[in-house]
Amino acid sequence: MRTFFGQPWALVHLFGVEMWERFSFYGMQGILLIYLYYSASQGGLGIPQTTAAGIVGAYGGAVYLSTIIGAWVADRLLGSERVLFFSAIVIMLGHIALALIPGVLGVGVGLVLVALGSGGLKANATSVVGTLYEAGDPRRDAGFSLFYLGINLGAFFGPILTGLLQSTIGFHFGFGLAALGMFLGLAQYSFGRRELPAVAREVPDPLPRRRYPLWIGVAIAAIVLIAVLVLTHVIRAEYLAQIVIWVTVAAAIVYFAVILSSKDITADDRRRVFGFIPLFVASVAFWSLYQQQFTVLTIYSDQRLDRSLFGWVMPVSWVQSINPVFIIILSGVFAAIWEKLGSRQPATPYKFAAGTAVMGAAFLLFLPFVGGGKNSTPLLALVGIVFVFTVAELLLSPVGLSVTTKLAPAAFQTQMVALFFLSVALGTAISGELSALYSARTEAAYFGILGGIAIVLGLALAALTPWVKRLIAPVR
Question: Which domains are delineated in the chain?
Answer without folding.
Answer: 9-196+212-472 (1.20.1250.20)
